[in-house]
Amino acid sequence: MDEKLFNAIQLVENGDINEGLQYLHSLIELANHEEKLMIADLYLQWGFLDEAKEIVNELLELYPDEGQLYIYAAEIAIEQDYEGDALDYLEEIKENDPAYLQALILMADMFQMQGLDEAAEQKLLKAKRLAPEEVLIDLGLGQFYSDIGEYQKAIPFFQKLIDTNAEIDHANVHLLLADAFVHTGHFEEALVSYEKGLMDKIEINALFNYGLMAYQLERYELAASKWNELKLMDPDYVPVYLYLAKAYEQIGALNESYQTAGEGLQIDPEYKELLVYAAKIAIKIQKTEDVATKLLKAIEIDSGFIEAIQLLSSYYLFHEQYDEVVNLLEKVAEADEYDPQFDWDLAVAKNNLDRYKDALNHYENAYTSFKDNIQFLQDFGYFLLEDGNLEKAKDMFVRILEIDPQSVEIEEELLRLEGK
Fold first, then answer.
1. 389 belongs to a structural domain
2. Which of 48, 77, 400, 407 sits in a 20 to 30 Å window from 109, CA-based?
3. Cβ density class 205-238: b for 16+ within 10 Å, e for less
4. C-alpha dist (Å) from residue 161 to 55, 130, 173
């Protein structure tokens, strides 16, 4: 029978699905009960749930005390979205049955999917009491606590699996532990766990997080090394380009940073955050011809992208392109996007375009947000002086001295205004 089952499997795996299923069905009448369960398991794996259910129900009538059959019945019911039936099957399994531990773990999974975390935890803890050395229960508890955000509770279970050299085929425990360390602020420990986990098997997301951890620890060259490794493995992993560009900037490799940003934009031209970052680096390396183009593209993608709007407005101001500032920010205002910086920038731009009344309105609008900002108070104060509003200008300068009593320039300006 084993050879015949193998032939059926080969047919299905080679794409001859109908022939394979017909052949498998023909084996049912010839199979003993154990072989029928093997056939049901194949049906379950391939998603033919009704066929699997029919065999399992037949076997349950013959062996109503066999716990493993109830496990199969529950798994089928779960796949068919009959969670209530699945729970009924699992509750039929007695505590002295070898399948009882598996039933507890399966019930815990079901309760967790339904948001019943406390009930799920109780099932797992009961399993732990019944089989304290079972590694799959430690894994289950560690993953459960991680899933619900209680990472500190997860760490001892993952650590125990590592300390006892438990072999678990389907989980990289070092990487699970690394994630728990990250979420509990144990960054150095996380870095070590990432290193060990990635020695066992390279996983793209874990490699990215390893680089991120190194970056947060200000180990920028290590971060760049790991992200370069990732980029070579999967050039289409778009997020890596932004972070690799940042790592290059941190180590002073600005040209490499700009080049990396450009590579990422070739893959995803609408990666708006990368467009803004590329513009920032372009300013630093004086490739100014690219700045406005990239920022305008980012704003075209997201008209409410405040960072891009602020940077473009600042760029225009620096280059004394005051009309462009006004056109940009008034268009943004028409789309109901707002940031206090917009009023400050419009005040400066319109003042330089001799639109003094409008400039005053923008300064007044911005004052509430920037009343503790010395640079703003200074700009506003000197604008008021030029506009002849001496008393209000003095108010601005007094406010500056309240914030910074050591501002000699402003103190002298006040003395001058007061005629002293």
1. yes
2. 48
3. ebbbbbbbbbbeeebbebbbbbbbebbeeeeebe
4. 37, 18, 7
CA atoms within 13 A of residue 315's CA, in its CB half-sphere: 25
SS (H, E, C) 227-264: HHHHHHHCCCCCHHHHHHHHHHHHCCCHHHHHHHHHHH
Measured in degrees and rounded to the nearest 5, phi and psi for residue 173 equal -65, -35
Instruction: Give the count of domains, the chain.
Output: 2
Which residue is listed with tokens 């598996």? 102
**Containing domain of residue 136, as a range?**
127-201
What are the tens digits of pLDDT across the range 103-146? Answer: 998 899 898 888 899 999 999 999 999 888 888 899 999 999 99
The residue from 201, 230, 264 where one domain ends is 201
Tokens coding 93: 């399994």
Tokens 């070739």 -> residue: 266
Residues 157-184: tens digit of each pLDDT = 999 988 888 777 778 888 899 999 999 9
- Residue 413 neighbours by CB under 8 Å, 6+ apart: 381, 397
Domain boundary at 201, 217, 245, which?
201
Instruction: Record the tokens describing residue 86, joined without a space.
Output: 């699945």
The domain that holds 172 is classified in CATH as 1.25.40.10
Measured distance CA(91)–CA(62) in Å, rounded: 19
Q: With respect to residue 92, please indicate whether it lies within any of the assigned structural domains.
A: no
Q: Does 266 reside within a domain?
A: no
